[in-house]
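Data availability excerpt. The first of two example chains:
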Amino acid sequence: MSGPGRKRGLPFAVYVLGVAIFALNTTEIMVAGLIPGISAEFGVSIGAVGALISIYALGMVVGGPLLTIAMRRIPAKRSLLWLLIVFVAGQAMGALAPSYAVLAASRVVTALAASAFFGVGAAVCVQLVGAERRGRAMSVLYGGITVAQVVGLPVATLIESHFGWRASFWIVGALALLCVAAVGYQVPDHRAADMLDLRAEIRVLRNGRLWGAYATNALVIGSAVTGFSYLSPIFTQGSGFPASAVPILFAVYGVATVVGNTIVGRYADRHTRSILTGGLIALTLVLAGFALTLTHQVPAVVATVLLGLIGLPLNPAMAARVMSVSNHGALVNALNGSAINVGVTIGPWLGGLGIGAGLGLSAPLWTGAIMACAGLLTLVPDYWMRAQRTPAPAATDAGPSS
């Protein structure tokens, strides 16, 4: 399906990998819709269940860069198959978990497999298509992340409401198992990626502006995910929505995310700094406003839509900033993913601590607002450096300055 004579379309293997990414990302975020059921079954707090998102993100932080390097010499098809098998095993472990501790351990297993799959899958997409179609192939691959927000999370929440949270784990595991067969049939045999030029990438990592971009990205996504992680109990216990409305509200959030991503993606390259600045200001105000009005349903819906429009959709601008200050190599991108997941790890954990300390369901929203505000501070050095590079206007009607 990917022969040289095919001018249009992409090899079917690219779409197979996109579906796999959809399954992996659904597992990462679906806990946000399963919090009440897991909390009730294991007798743990809402904050403890929210921490399962942080645990998954932490596994991505540790596994991403290391496995990207370690697996670069293993044939791609073999790597993808084994990683999916490990992921399926981790999902089954979670679905059968007799305790919260086992469920948490299953999250680490699936996160490690997912982190490596992202890297290897991206390398395979690049090899499957010509240079002129790489951008399109990557958009399909990572489109699985967006579809997980729009479809995966609401469906997992809907399944949980009818059959229990374990059924959601089984369904995602079954989808990943189908992807094992599809990858085995569709993905050709070749190496996972070219050799990494580690020396060149390490030189790039000495750039302070790159680490500033990493800090911004961690705080942007950490802020958005912190508020998002506790939306299910906020909707039902805070705003008074029935449980049956939660999947619909998550779907609304997902659609808003797609719209926001489309808009930001169109202008991210030309207006990177402005988008990040405006987005972080808006994110701070939306999360703070949500915290103040979460007991009212109409403001809660409005805040959910705005959070979808300006939270995760800042991703294209974040990526553009990283690329502008680096060689956007494999290790640089893997570390960017790790930085983002540091934010995803810390944010929901802090939000859960706030709930546990008796601050109520508004605690994660205030935590997210504070993180977004801190993200604004990370942009200050960029503005300062730009001001230093801008020459002062020449005097036209005054004598020489002393």
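And the second chain:
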Amino acid sequence: MWMLRLRRFVRVMSKGGWMLLWALRDARTPLLVKLGTVAVLAYVISPVDLVPDLPILGWFDDAALLMVAIPFLLDRLPAAVRTQAQAASERSKLRRWFGGAGLGGRA
């Protein structure tokens, strides 16, 4: 049961992440949303973390940040940009390749 919840969570976060990446390219996206997306992406990729990236334990701060930041940033997108980013992310070849983060294909 908890694996199904985890899989659904990864799908939702993956879909929101791809939408934010597509929204970065749109000129109608507010500057603060663009800066927030870049800052979150930089933190997750960066080797400098609040908690060192030890297996499993060190990933909790990254996961917590993503759980808060992705919905927060998506809520601040204008409706037209959000709709267009959702459509673009769903037909993206990259999303098909990496869509479910390895947990079941498409999200």
